[in-house]
Fold this sequence. Notes:
The chain is mainly alpha-helical.
Amino acid sequence: MESFLSDHVTRAGRWFLESGIQEPCGGVARFYRSDAGVNARVSTEITGYAISTFLYLHAATGEAAYLEAAQRAGRFLLDSAWDHEAATFAYEYAVGGQRAAPLAFFFDAGIILRSLLGLYRVTGIEEWLRAGEACGISMVRDFRAGPEFHPVLSLPGKQPAPREARWSRRPGCYQLKAALGWYELWDTAGRAEFRARYEQALEQALETHTTFLPGEGPREGLVDRLHAYCYFLEGLLPGVGRQECARALDEGLDRASRLADEIAPQFERSDVLAQLLRLQLLAAALGLRTLDAERAAQQVARITRYQLEHDDPRIRGGFCFGRKGHQLLPFVNPVSTAFCLQALRMWRQFQAGQLDAAWRTLI
């Protein structure tokens, strides 16, 4: 096991494998509700994030169990979650008599696409690449709305769902992270049309991102918008060699960090802390800005406080979604755990001068 794998990261990895957050079907639940003792419904987006996390941990440890878990999740996506009639991935998957919402999200498809390409790069199995291409085509064909992309479609007819005030139900700069899937398809399969789609999404995001924060509505909602805004900053990473992208990343990091600190006494999300730290470390490794090491160490300390100690394996080692005031929220969250374990490992690598600045490794 590599020296950069701290106890925090190791315990988080075991939580992914042993907590039951990955259901027997291979899909991964949106979160574990610790107060009720149940998993939420299986989410195709979260399954995609879990695949990327399993692959990340496999690369770090060499443990076959992580690759096996990633492939189980991939098989679930292809064999069960893919809607063959609609040719897209549905939002959720119903198990045990549950009812899944008949929706498809543009953002979710991009996360799934990246995970399928990750499986292809690791295994060389063409089926994962073909599935990724089908997902990428669906994103272009079904979600395009002029210069924008519909955030949500109703299934099975694939009609645009009504737009709501919530950021996830409206188009916005955050969709740029999903568009990374197109960039990776171009990079992996040489399909120039997908690179053009990423460039279209990048242009739109650069034009609109300055109005995304702080947003309207209750002050508490700012934390959720910060999470989404970090997705925009992550989506910029392939283009940071361009002045406009580097400037947007630099200015966006400063703005998001300031707002996160302001709202933290009322509401703090562990995934937002981890997203900001990952971006700061990558920006420093790329030579785009100097890292404030004292602040980074403080962020590391704040992140580690969200890792849960418990006798129950469904909780032990996972990361809590966040807190309101002094009260931890009862959600053991796969995405929070994935982002936090990666941020902690990246911090140790940066300290040793061995952080790989390749943006493709970002979960």
